[in-house]
């Protein structure tokens, strides 16, 4: 079998009748080389033709397809084409392939660039609207779940919520602490370096304290949680959706939003402010360490200075934002998870979208809060 | 060792040969010292109660499941300790229809069928498209289905598309894991017929794990019954009916079995 001669198509001409003799092993392994000679024969040969298959040693569907293509190509040129010498096997294969028309369907009509642009804009607008509706839907579902929990406290999914607080909150403590410590240190170091030129190094403490408590602590923690827990929520819910687990829940008569999404969002809302508080403290400690080593402000002096620089409301400005950001991360992650379709690529796409959208929205909301707090002078 | 029973004589070539296969999970043995032979050109049906390790046997032969002992030879080559190249060249001559289809979800049906060709052969795009459409047509899918994504297909269409991919390389041996489960009876009968036709035309050897008594009756040349961690009996349908084992009797002589028998 390994000694099969290379497949080929021989051409001979006797008494005005063309004769094409197929020789060798016409299988999926040889058709790549045969294809050019088939197309050449179709364009060169015309008139009455005999296709002689007696020289074929092995044939499979790929080889049979090329012969079918040859037969059709020649017949289309109003020649009288006949096949002879087909083995029982080859004939069966040819018969199996013959009855169907297998023209490649025409490609979809091309559309112009302008139309494509309009279409893309329209699609984006439509999907943005759908996203908003999906988000409101989830918010409504969570609210209803909480309302029901008040009426039937026994059915409140406290275990599930605590489990998710552990996963999104407690397990994020090391990374959030480390990140915030470093950020606090970097801000202190940079501001001290710049303010040294004015002899105002001591104000770097004010800068660290205010910046961290009002903005940086909450913002970075929210971004970290969006990347860490938002993606996990989308992937979990998305793969449950792919495997019809979400559908199974609805059929059993359990609201998937209440069982799957509400505990995750409530857990986020509880965990994020705690993480933000932790991040604030860690950043202040980081700033204090740099101030001590780099500027020479003793810890006692640093604490006094921080106390002068900030009031309780500075801390609250940051903390108030945390539950809202948790809600945004949770809603976006859950709605992206629910929009996952069948394919693995779709899961990846929606997980990416969840992280990107929630980080973007967290920053937008932070900006809105900054405007609001400036307006009310808090 | 059982003789091949469907009359082709003793010169028939063994294409898959498993010897002393032992597979276990933890302290639970699924298969123990199991011997199995598959002959060229036959359709072997593997049956057994749920949990007797039919799919495990299939996965073990394919090298997807590690075994504790035993050896597997495919197409005359020891598969277990073959080097990567030998293994790849054997793999190219195998086609597998997984129970859930296992179509690549990010590719269309056409691209799924073209995938093995694209990886292993150098064909023009036109020829690949045509061959893929031939396969799609052979398995009885409408031409429009070629451009759909797997997530848009029904269960039966997934089976057919997956069979088309298994056939893409014109394999010598095809493994089918419950090919007709989830198909309606007409679809299942067509599928059986299709497998028999493909066997006849392509000289395919088929290793089929199935529960479908119709399939066993109409297309399988030989049946192997798994139970008690090994092959209880192998042979023709008549051998099954004559075999004295409670499970085998119940399975092949039950109400549903009698109905099938009457029809055939």
TrEMBL record, chain B:
The superkingdom of the source organism is: Bacteria
PROSITE patterns named among the record's database cross-references: ABC_TRANSPORTER_1, ABC_TRANSPORTER_2
What keywords were assigned to this record? ATP-binding, Nucleotide-binding, Transport
The record ties this protein, via InterPro entries, to: AAA+_ATPase (IPR003593), ABC_transporter-like_ATP-bd (IPR003439), ABC_transporter-like_CS (IPR017871), P-loop_NTPase (IPR027417)
Q: Which Gene3D superfamilies match?
A: P-loop containing nucleotide triphosphate hydrolases
Instruction: Pinpoint the ABC transporter domain residues.
Output: 16-253
Q: One MF term in GO for this entry?
A: ATP binding
Which family is annotated? Belongs to the ABC transporter superfamily.
Q: What is this protein called?
A: ABC transporter ATP-binding protein
The organism that produces this protein has a lineage beginning with: Bacteria, Pseudomonadati, Pseudomonadota, Alphaproteobacteria, Hyphomicrobiales
């Amino acid at each position: 079998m390994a000694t099969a001669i290379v497949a080929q198509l021989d051409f001979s001409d006797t008494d005005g009748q063309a004769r094409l003799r197929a020789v060798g092993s016409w299988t999926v392994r040889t058709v790549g080389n045969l294809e050019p000679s088939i197309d050449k024969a179709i364009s060169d040969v015309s008139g009455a033709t005999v296709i002689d298959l007696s020289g074929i040693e092995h044939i499979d569907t790929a080889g049979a397809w090329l012969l079918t293509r040859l037969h059709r190509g020649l017949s289309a040129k109003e020649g009288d084409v006949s096949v002879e010498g087909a083995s029982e096997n080859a004939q069966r294969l040819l018969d199996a392939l013959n009855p169907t028309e297998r023209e490649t369907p025409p490609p979809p009509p091309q559309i112009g660039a302008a139309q494509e642009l309009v279409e893309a804009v329209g699609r984006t607008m439509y999907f943005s609207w759908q996203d908003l509706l999906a988000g409101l839907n989830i918010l409504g579902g969570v609210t209803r779940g909480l309302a029901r929990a008040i009426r039937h406290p026994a059915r409140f999914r406290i275990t599930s919520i605590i489990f998710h607080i552990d996963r999104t909150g407690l397990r994020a403590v090391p990374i959030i602490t480390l990140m915030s410590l470093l950020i606090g240190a970097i801000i202190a170091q940079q501001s001290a370096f710049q303010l040294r030129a004015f002899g105002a190094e001591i104000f770097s403490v004010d800068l660290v304290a205010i910046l961290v408590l009002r903005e940086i602590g909450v913002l970075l923690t929210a971004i970290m949680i969006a990347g860490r827990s938002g993606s996990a929520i989308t992937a979990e819910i998305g793969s449950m959706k792919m495997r019809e687990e979400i559908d199974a829940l609805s059929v059993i008569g359990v609201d998937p939003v209440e069982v799957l999404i509400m505990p995750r969002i409530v857990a986020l809302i509880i965990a994020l402010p705690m993480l933000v508080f932790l991040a604030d403290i860690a950043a202040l400690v980081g700033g204090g360490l740099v101030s001590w080593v780099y500027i020479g402000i003793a810890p006692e002096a640093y604490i006094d200075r921080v106390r002068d620089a900030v009031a309780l409301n500075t801390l609250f400005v940051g903390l108030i934002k945390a539950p809202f950001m948790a809600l945004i991360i949770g809603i976006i992650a859950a709605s992206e998870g629910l929009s996952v379709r069948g394919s693995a690529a779709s899961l990846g796409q929606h997980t990416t979208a969840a992280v990107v959208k929630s980080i973007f929205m967290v920053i937008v909301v932070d900006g809105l809060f900054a405007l609001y707090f400036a307006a009310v002078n808090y | 060792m059982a003789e091949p029973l469907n009359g082709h004589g003793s010169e028939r070539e063994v294409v898959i040969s498993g010897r002393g296969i032992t597979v276990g999970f933890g302290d639970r043995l699924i298969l123990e010292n199991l011997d199995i032979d598959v002959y060229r050109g036959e359709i072997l049906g593997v049956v057994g109660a749920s949990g007797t390790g039919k799919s495990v046997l299939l996965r073990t032969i394919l090298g997807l499941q590690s075994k504790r002992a035993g050896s597997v030879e495919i197409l005359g080559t020891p598969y277990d300790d073959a080097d990567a190249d030998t293994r790849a060249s054997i793999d190219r001559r195998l086609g597998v229809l997984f129970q859930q289809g296992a179509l690549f979800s990010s590719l269309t049906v056409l691209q799924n069928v073209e995938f093995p060709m694209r990886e292993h052969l150098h064909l023009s795009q036109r020829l690949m498209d045509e061959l893929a459409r031939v396969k799609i047509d052979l398995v009885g899918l409408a031409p429009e289905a070629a451009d759909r994504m797997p997530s848009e297909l029904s269960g039966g269409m997934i089976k057919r598309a997956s069979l088309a991919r298994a056939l893409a390389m014109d394999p010598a041996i095809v493994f089918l894991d419950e090919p007709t489960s989830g198909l309606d009876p007409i679809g299942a009968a067509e599928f059986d017929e299709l497998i028999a036709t493909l066997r006849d035309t392509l000289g395919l050897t088929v290793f089929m794990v199935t529960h479908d008594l119709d399939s066993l009756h109409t297309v399988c040349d030989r049946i192997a019954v798994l139970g008690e961690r090994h092959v209880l009996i192998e042979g023709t349908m008549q051998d099954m009916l004559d075999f004295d084992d409670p499970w085998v009797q119940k399975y092949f002589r039950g109400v549903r079995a009698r109905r099938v028998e009457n029809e055939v």
